[in-house]
Amino acid sequence: MELVTYEGEEERRNPVVSVLGHVDHGKTTLLDFIRKANVAAGEDGGITQKIGAYQANTDQGTIAFIDTPGHAAFSEVRARGANSTDIVILVVAADDGVMPQTLESINHAKAAKVPVIVAVNKCDKEGVHTDRIRQELSAHELIPEEWGGDTMFVNISALRGDGVDNLIESLALQAEVLDLKANHSKPAYGRVVEARIDKGRGTVVTVLVQEGTLKKSDYMLVGQNYGRVRMMTDHYGKTIKAAGPSTPVELTGLNGVPAAGEEFYLVKNERDAKRIVSNRETKAKEAQKPASILSADPWNTSIKKYQHLILKADVSGSLEAIRASIEALSTDEVEVKVITSGIGQVTESDISLAQASEASVLGFNVGADNKAKRIAEKGEVLISRYSIIYELIDH
């Protein structure tokens, strides 16, 4: 493979911040206030269903934010958020306290060895005791600076904006201590934040550039997908030609939909990309073992039953989280088996497979095209559509 060469030294870069915490503790409302865009009100069920990356130009400089969902099913998304970030803001509601996803977020931050700043939210509510939150988190090794520890705590109201300036200042101070640097001249490297299929543009991928500079027309390799960057836009939707470290961008040009969290690299040309992808596909096929319908009972006295499902979703992050949650529902007697999953609408081929395998079809934020609907009605194939993840899993 022909390597992409580079020169240059490391320069200062902007911090990348993940906002973690329990569902409905105010993560998206906080980001909404920071970037002055009304995204918090538009979420079904009050939770962020997919991960998003944004840049905010503050008085303390530019900061890239990664917003992660709070629902239990999105554990892997939160883990990726922590692993892609420099600083974690842990949002804890003062009227609710430490909850299961709060603890999970702390563990992700510890595993990634990322410093945590605690934002104690909803401090505008009457009767809240912020010291109680500090006491609860101290039991998990997040000891406030004012109590002799090394964790910054900031009291805020994400809804009103109280204390948010102090939080931004704390981020800037922590970033200064970290002395964040990157080589802007290297070939770009980073991670997929989210991916989806757009009817007019094909595969649309949001990536976070972590090293180097990504340019239009670069050849990109992502897992078993590749392509040439046709178009890039920033978080405002403005077309750009290049993106440096700590920059989230949306791009088109890949030949398929990569999984959220996958690393991307640049290669010299399409030939190299195809060769690497071919090798990866071969290894992936070799690693796959055919699933047996029979139980592991050597006397074959019982047959394990399967509930077959076909899963379609709008974006790769949601697809991954839902699939993992569904397959975790399996028992010793019945295995819940997702026989295929993908991004985009339910299609005719999905229905044909459902008929052949006696499977049900689940759509998350996607429906079925007209042809698929007609075939499903004739073949009595059940298509269920959901827009809230916990309703899907409960069902």
Distance between the termini: 49 Å
Average per-residue pLDDT, rounded, comes to 82
How would you classify the helix and strand content by structural class?
Answer: alpha/beta
Strand order, biggest sheet?
3-4-2-5-6-7
Radius of gyration: 23 Å
Structure description:
- This protein is α/β, with parallel strands linked by helices and 395 residues long.
- Helices cover 28% and strands 31% of the residues.
- A six-stranded mixed β-sheet has the order 3-4-2-5-6-7, sandwiched between helices.
- A hairpin with a 3-residue loop joins strand 9 and strand 10.
- The termini are far apart.
Brief synopsis:
The protein has helices at residues 27-35, 75-83, 100-112, 130-138, 164-178, 270-287, 316-327, 348-357, 370-379, 389-394; strands spanning 10-12, 16-21, 52-58, 61-67, 87-93, 116-121, 152-155, 181-183, 189-198, 202-211, 214-215, 219-222, 225-233, 239-240, 242-243, 247-254, 263-267, 305-313, 334-343, 360-364, 383-386.
Topology:
Blueprint: E1 10-12, E2 16-21, H1 27-35, E3 52-58, E4 61-67, H2 75-83, E5 87-93, H3 100-112, E6 116-121, H4 130-138, E7 152-155, H5 164-178, E8 181-183, E9 189-198, E10 202-211, E11 214-215, E12 219-222, E13 225-233, E14 239-240, E15 242-243, E16 247-254, E17 263-267, H6 270-287, E18 305-313, H7 316-327, E19 334-343, H8 348-357, E20 360-364, H9 370-379, E21 383-386, H10 389-394
Parallel strand pairs: 2-4, 2-5, 5-6, 6-7, 18-19, 18-20, 20-21
Antiparallel strand pairs: 1-8, 3-4, 9-10, 9-17, 10-16, 11-15, 12-13, 12-17, 13-14, 13-16
Helix pairs in contact: 2-3, 8-9
